[in-house]
Amino acid sequence: MYKKVFPALISSILYSALFILVSCGEQTDPLIDKANEEWIQGHNHSALELLNEVLKKHPSGPKAEEALFRMGEIHHFSLDNGTRALNYFQEVRQMNRQGPFSYDAQKYIAEIAEFGLKDYDQAIIEYQNLINFYKKENSDGDHQYRIASIYYKKQNYEQALVELQILLENYPKSPWAEETKFKIIEILYALNRCPEARQQYRHFNLDYSNSRFKSEMDFLVASCLEEEGHLKDAYKRFKSLEGRYTYPAILKMKLVGIEKRIEKKR
Length: 266
Hints:
Blueprint: H1 7-23, H2 30-40, H3 44-57, H4 62-78, H5 82-95, H6 102-116, H7 120-133, H8 142-153, H9 157-170, H10 177-190, H11 194-207, H12 214-227, H13 231-240, H14 248-265
Helix pairs in contact: 2-3, 3-4, 4-5, 5-6, 6-7, 7-8, 8-9, 9-10, 10-11, 10-12, 11-12, 12-13, 13-14
């Protein structure tokens, strides 16, 4: 998560910020422009000094918000200091929740909590804040998907399932919809709820006949059949995956295992 930002990416970030400020009728402080140039050139500490000068001149208001936001980005992307970055982004959010940098600051806060600090409980809170306070910006279910993913990481599969279902209810046209439906099938299998997994699988095939998740789902359904004792049907399904399953060694292991079980029954 923490890595140096290439100049092109920094330039893109700065261009977006300038567009926001111009559209809002605000003029950027010349010191901020100079700090941005220093950052692009890799002079991180010089940029921070200039931004501190901005804060002395403008302790509050849009220029202060931008200076704090830039300081957060420098610490986050260029200095690999997530804790310091978090403090600056929190200041931006607290200074003006409706400001032009508030939403992006809140996103960074959530991402640092999840990927940097690995404080999953706090990350869930921060993503939920994004959903609750920035409804216009959150139209595609990204943050809801992150919440579900965190519960999955925590191995709280029941709650992950709930969060994925919320995503489908609240964001039915989300670009995450296909992957969400696949994840639901995957979790149902993990919870030993194979009949439900197969039912969801049938619905999925109707909606996404050419899905990139097709082979993984076929593997899960075959695994359900195997666990339920339908060995011949399971074998046929596993066999049909040869040449298109991502992990051929695992597939071969499954086939050999079922062959031995069938032979033992004879």
